[in-house]
Amino acid sequence: MVTAELAAALPALALVMMAAIWVIGLTSIQLQCSDAAREAARAAARGESIQTVRDIARTVAPRQAEVEIEWGDNMVKIEIRASLRAPAPLGAALSPTVSGHAIALEERP
After folding, report:
1. Do residues 44 and 76 touch, judged by C-beta distance below 8 A?
2. What pTM was computed for the model?
3. Alpha-carbon distance 17 to 8, whole Å?
4. DSSP 22-72
5. What residues form DSSP beta bridges with 62?
6. Kind of pairing between the strands at 75-83 and 97-105
7. Are 58 and 65 in contact (CB under 8 A)?
8. What is the pLDDT of residues 32-66, one digit of tens each?
9. Per the UniProt record, which residue ranges are transmembrane (predicted)?
10. C-alpha 76: how far from its chain's center?
11. Which of 66, 79, 77, 81 is nearest to 26 (CA)?
């Protein structure tokens, strides 16, 4: 009897474990986006060129991330967005987008 119950519960347990691992991966990508936005904003505040700022953001950000840079009024705003598709049993259509933001004032010498 216990063997039958265990056999019935194993697929559900496997699905829960896959979901937990996917959520951990999604959290990791969100942290990478935040780190990339912060590093890019620091570089922009130091007066680096826009190409250098974009390169820094892409280096730190996860693959396939979108980088958006806005300059204006001695401020720079960086936003980095990335998605992570869910594993097939959880639904291939599920692909939430996470983002990281940073705003920095340009430093004056």
Report:
1. yes
2. 0.82
3. 15
4. HHHHHHHHHHHHHHHHHHHHHHHHHT--HHHHHHHHHHHSPTT-EEEEEEE
5. none
6. antiparallel
7. yes
8. 999 999 999 999 999 899 999 999 999 999 989 99
9. 6-29
10. 20
11. 81
Residue found under tokens 């004032």: 105
How many CB atoms lie under 10 A from the CB of residue 17?
A: 10
Q: Which two tokens stand for residue 101?
A: 């933001």
Tokens of 52: 């250098």
Query: ∠ CA 41-43-49 to the nearest 5 degrees?
Result: 110
Residue (of 101, 35, 29) closest to 70 by Cα position: 101
In tens, the pLDDT along 58-89 reads 999 998 999 999 988 889 999 999 988 887 76
